[in-house]
Amino acid sequence: MNKVILQIPTTDLQPNPLQPRGIISPDSIEELVKSIEKHGILEPLVVAKTPAGYQIIAGERRWRSARTLKLDSVPAIVKKTTPQGMLEMAIVENVQRKDLNPIERAKAFLRLKDEFSLVYEDIAERVSKSIPYVVNSIRLLSLPDALKDGLLSGLISEGHGRALAGIPDTRLMIEAYKIVLRERASVRRAEDIARRMKKKIEEGMVPITKENLHHFLKSKLDVVSESIKGKFDSEKTKVKIVQSNMATKVTIQFNGPSDERTKQLENLYEIVCGKKIKLLDEESKPKIKRKNKKIK
Asked: Strand, coil or helix: what is 144?
């Protein structure tokens, strides 16, 4: 089915209030003005008809260029959509055209997540990207302002930003950023520097703060698990520790025959409570009564 292209008066159009792109470069408008002046608008705008009028989903730069050239109308395709749909289409359009800088893209993904309750899988599907791409983009928002400025100005690439964003300590992150700038480091080198900074936290070489505590503790979980496991029959015991920002879950699993597992449980009770307990003695063991069969 062919899409209907309408000529809509330039003055009837409005920018998309959900436009993910924050800043439109004057240079990009100037280049587009020259192109439109020579070739015309080759691709129609995509707009939505709302109670407030026609709002641009995709093509704001073409519209601004048309106004600069004082064009009476622009070609456009009108779509019926929702606020969420407008944001999604604007993001897809800009991601495909690479019109968004990394921070704008990350903010757009976060808006889909927070304002429309989309999970990472949904966002990835809508923008035709992988889940790690979406997750790593959003992580860029955790960068300090100095690193965001470096990313936007081109001092570091998005790859550098992703590597440095993995350092769970702002002071160490900035320290790593300075090393990257000083060495003009590659992305791989930035990843090595980030690992080195995280190692400092894991080994307690820097003050442990609320910010880096989670990473510090997480690095010790294997040691803690093995230490707990060593208090029991290690061949038949599994210890798993899962830690999040909100909770720590410790799972101790005893395997083997019932009486062995009971002894392990009694041992656990003694370790935790500091006193012994007998869960199952000889008298309380279930006795099986056997009935003599009558011989007919």
From this structure: coil
Helix ranges, 43-169 (H):
60-68, 83-97, 102-115, 120-127, 131-139, 145-153, 158-165
What 3-state class would DSSP assign to 294? Answer: coil
d(CA 198, CA 132): 21
- Catalytic annotation on 202? no
Helices (H), 203-256: 213-229
Main-chain dihedrals φ then ψ at residue 293, nearest 5 degrees: -80, 135
CA 99 to chain CA centroid, nearest Å: 21
Tens of pLDDT, residues 146-168: 999 999 999 999 999 999 999 99
What are the tens digits of pLDDT across the range 211-256? Answer: 988 888 878 888 888 888 888 876 889 998 887 778 888 999 999 8
Q: Which residues contact 163 (CB under 8 A, 6 or more apart)?
A: 187, 190, 191, 193, 194
Q: How far is CA 19 from the centre of its chain?
A: 21
- Out of 30, 37, 43, 60, the active site residue is 60
Please report the domains of the chain, with CATH numbers, ordered by start residue. Answer: 1-100 (3.90.1530.10), 143-202 (no CATH), 219-273 (no CATH)
d(CA 90, CA 71) in angstroms, rounded, equals 23
pTM for this prediction:
0.62
Q: Which amino acid is at 174?
A: I
